[in-house]
Amino acid sequence: MNQTQLPGSGRPPSASSTARNTMRDMWDSRPLRPRDDRKLAGVSAAIARRYEIDPTLVRVGFVVAAIVGPGIPLYLAGCAVLPDAGPPGSPVPPRSGPSSALSVTLLVLAALLAVPLVLSADRVIPAVVTVALLVALHVTRGNRPGAREAAASPTPVVPWVADPHAPTVAQVTPPAWDPLGAAPFAWDLPEPGPEPGPPPAPRSTLTPITLAVSLVVAGMVGVLALAAPGAVPASAVPGAALAVVGVGLVVGALRRAGRWLVPFAVLLALVTAATIPLNDAVGPDGWAVRGGIGETVEAPATVAQLAPEYRRGTGSVQLDLTRLDLTATPGATGPVRTRAEVGAGAVEIRVPRDADLLVRSSVGTGDLTVDGQTRTGQDVDLTVNDPGPDGPGGRVLELDLRAELGTVEVTRG
């Protein structure tokens, strides 16, 4: 087996020395942030030119990384460590030198934003995966022909092509007045025309092929959903198409193609998010579950009108229960129960002033306010058992409330 050896020794390089060399090479060959193709600070355009990938897909990657955690700190760090190319025509700035106050400020801000990633276990993995993907991108595409020249140049490096309109020796126009016949080759020849331009580059077939495959896969999943109701959720149909489009985006990033897949990916993501709450359209006891995007605003006047469950993927659930009759009678005893849940949004419940309350509430990230008690933070739970100002008596109103991202509030009317 052929292995690169350390200079002056007969041993192959260790993993630690290889990692140091990779980090040093990434630093020494870091690209310049151009000004001719930037949307914010030019970080995405610089990375795209350095590794010869599509800048649109790099920007999409930063947006996704910002959603899962490390995107904003990484972008700020890129603004700090990647030099600005300056205006067009300006000399190439040095890659090393004294750090500016702005660069130091951006690095400090990026470090402060990265602290929650280190403290939160569910965000450490996305951060590590993102950094590992950047390193893998450098290892696999950092030495491609033209990549380092593109990193060192404030403008994209393109191969030199002769001007097709420049005259050649055979195209030189003979003089209009030739009394001595010095140019007999031009007597009977037609005037030379312009050289034909280069043929247009063939259009990439990645987008239509990816969309066609996604339709086929979504159709197959749809057939399974219809053949086995309940076994395949409704969100699996657009989710399968979204997975195929995601693979197409990854391939397109490496081939500098497929940017028209981005709007289809956004649309499929919205459709998938809207159909996720519909997976439980009918609960285990036949409960009606409301899902999707928007608001649920209801004010049931009787216990019979109160649904066992209310749910929104994105939006709010607002229930006015102040008109419920919770008086215990021989035909109506036991607690009155309901459940409300949102993925991102708010759960707002108003209950009768004298109701006997048992509230079990939680938020993934956000605020809880139940009967005057407040909690704020991540993975917060709050259970309140309050018989009301008049003491125990009547039917207990049991509420199970949950918001993944947002607020839960229960107040007495």
Explain this structure to me?
Keywords: Membrane, Transmembrane, Transmembrane helix. InterPro entries: Phageshock_PspC_N. It comes from Pseudonocardia alni. The chain crosses the membrane at residues 57-78, 98-119, 209-228, 234-254, 261-278. Residues 30-84 form the Phage shock protein PspC N-terminal domain. The chain is of the alpha/beta class and 413 residues long. The chain folds into 3 domains: 15-152, no CATH class; 206-280; 293-412, no CATH class. It is 37% helix and 19% strand. The protein is built from 10 helices and 6 strands. It has helices at 15-28, 43-51, 55-68, 71-81, 101-119, 121-141, 147-152, 206-227, 236-255, 261-275; strands at 293-298, 309-320, 336-351, 356-370, 373-386, 396-412. The chain has a 6-stranded mixed β-sheet. Helix 2 packs across helix 3 (55-68) and helix 9 runs antiparallel to helix 10. The N and C termini lie far apart (78 Å). Residues 158-162, 167-171 and 278-290 have low confidence and may be disordered.
Provide keyphrases for this structure.
6 strands; Phageshock_PspC_N; six-stranded mixed sheet; 3 domains; about 425 residues; 10 helices; alpha/beta
Sheet with the most strands, sense and barrel status? 6 strands, mixed
Quote the distance from N terminus to C terminus. Answer: 78 Å
> How confident overall, as mean pLDDT?
74
> Helix fraction?
25-40%
- Count the beta strands: 6
Rg = 33 Å
- Unreliable spans are 158-162, 167-171, 278-290
The percentage of residues in β strands lies in: 15-25%
The total tally of domains equals 3
Taken from the alpha-carbon principal axes, the silhouette is elongated
Q: How would you classify the helix and strand content by structural class?
A: alpha/beta
Kindly report the oligomeric state of this protein: single chain
Work out the helix count. 10
The helix/strand series, from N terminus to C terminus, equals HHHHHHHHHHEEEEEE
Strand order of the largest sheet: 1-2-3-6-4-5
